[in-house]
Design goal:
- This protein has ten helices and 20 strands.
- The chain is α+β, with helices and mostly antiparallel strands.
- It has a domain of about 160 residues: FAD/NAD(P)-binding domain (3-Layer(bba) Sandwich).
- Strand 11 and strand 12 form a beta hairpin.
- Helix 1 runs parallel beside helix 5, helix 1 crosses helix 10 and helix 2 crosses helix 10.
- The chain starts with a strand and ends with a helix.
- Bound molecules: flavin-adenine dinucleotide.
- The site of flavin-adenine dinucleotide has 41 residues, from helix 1 and strand 18.
Length: about 400
Amino acid sequence: MNNETYDVVIIGAGIIGLATALKLLEKKPNIKLGIIEKDPKVGQQQSGHNSGVIHSGIYYKPGSFKANFCVAGRKSMTDYCIENEIPVWTCGKLIVATDEASESRLDDLEERGKANNVDGLRIVGKDEIKEIEPHVSATKALYAPKTGIVDYTKVSYSYYQKILNMSGEVFLSTKVIGFQRDSDISIIKTNNGEIKSKNVINCAGLHSDIIAETMDVTTDVRIIPFRGEYYKLSKNSEHLVKGLIYPVPDPAFPFLGVHLTQTMKGWVEAGPNAVLAWKKEGYSKTDFSINDTLRTLSFKGFWKLSLRDWKTGLWEINRSLRKNVFLNSLRKLVPELKSEDLSGKGSGVRAQAVDNEGNLVDDFKIIELDKAIHVLNAPSPGATASLVIGEHIAGIAENNFSL
Ligand SMILES: Cc1cc2nc3c(=O)[nH]c(=O)nc-3n(C[C@H](O)[C@H](O)[C@H](O)COP(=O)(O)OP(=O)(O)OC[C@H]3O[C@@H](n4cnc5c(N)ncnc54)[C@H](O)[C@@H]3O)c2cc1C
């Protein structure tokens, strides 16, 4: 590794680390910036294993980071894709009420979306539902016409190319394994040697809590991995889904419920669910890591969460193991779906911060220190909002790091 001292080193080349680097280099083109990424390519973890939806900002508490970043993020992501010739499709999204309880929750959701200034959001009735999604059977739904889809792996790669063009350096296949502070300089230890930097930004996603601890930061959260599993629809059933079809989410959880989504990858997805994963990057049901499991089990917040929400946890495991239960959830949205329509499979693992009291941290969590910034919760709609989050973090860096 070279012996120079960087102004800023970012740990993690997911979509958030890359967007932060991009925005920082746009503000300060002359700084010496490096990104350290353990994988051989950028955007291979959460950023490459998500639903590809450009969310419009309906669900989030007005005034929260999520609400503000998502509404601005939808526009900036769509514009960025158009400017940079990345295929993007504003296909619209229907949130479908499937029973009486969800009908009244739909009104609350509309109110929230309107408070967040979500463009074009409106309640639609039976006839309009049939026009938008002919195979959905419901009497009431919330329609967000500006919700879109994109392949975030392509977006991440586009950010990466721009960073290289602006003289940012990206160290691939380089894992951060230790850290030392030597007066004003951080010495970042990796499997390929040491890198020195005046300032560090931790965007390590599923590993961001471990990186923070390595850097002697005490926090009240731990990242608990939740796998999201999905089926692909068989080719001859893809016509049942025109755009994005979602249920009304359970307000107690930050996950959106299994849904049906067109993708820019050439297939239609059904899912994802949300089951506890025993490995941070455990994409298959049988993946297990003793270290990651012990980390989860030794955290008191995990036990508080489990004691409180064990019924939901068991229900999710049941749905994960039994295809017909998964199918039943989907058939509430599109009754014509049959078991044989669910063919291929895929998954992603969410980095969900849980606090000491067992609460799933809902909003983005960014810790600002003198010479470091730690992104400790960047769940969905993190990809949608990446440019806006990047701009926000770059602004903090500009001030706190005196760049
Ligand atoms: C199943 C699923 C569906 C989702 N759907 C959507 C959606 O439709 N729309 C949306 O907007 N958002 C969605 N999200 C959320 C979105 O994907 C995330 O908010 C976003 O990808 C977070 O990006 P990140 O850069 O923080 O994390 P990541 O993409 O996980 O990047 C972190 C990076 O850090 C690297 N790293 C970790 N440890 C080290 C180390 N020690 N040394 C070096 N590098 C390290 C990792 O290899 C990784 O590349 C979804 C997420 C999941 C999992």
